[in-house]
Amino acid sequence: MSVLLKTRVTSIGPEVADLAEGGVVILFADGSPPELAEVSVLHKTEEGPSDDGPAKGASITLGAVSATITAVGETAWSKVREMGHVVISFNGATEAERPGELCASEIDTAALVSALTPGAVITIAA
What we know:
Layout: E1 3-12, H1 16-21, E2 24-29, H2 34-37, E3 41-47, E4 59-62, E5 65-72, H3 76-83, E6 86-89, E7 101-104, H4 109-115, E8 121-125
Parallel strand pairs: 2-3, 6-7
Antiparallel strand pairs: 1-3, 1-8, 2-6, 4-5, 4-8, 5-7
């Protein structure tokens, strides 16, 4: 497997747990505006992002939680490359509803909330 993105969580906004309970995680690179940081998982990239984004079937791990990417919005990877931002919806959808969204297989949302801690590693690999 080749790593497309490896990033480390630096902080968790106060509203992240509520979103994660609904199966949604919003990533933003460190330094995002405060109003976005409230709903975001802030992170610092350690590897990547690669030139080419993930395709359906790529893997995504957030700490101990793993899923499979099921859809990629048309601008999702360019936003990752430009500003470290993407919305990840763990809904199993085969088509992204929003252009900046990655969809992934459904997971245990309680495990997702637990996995989202400062220092946790997020990896997208193909």
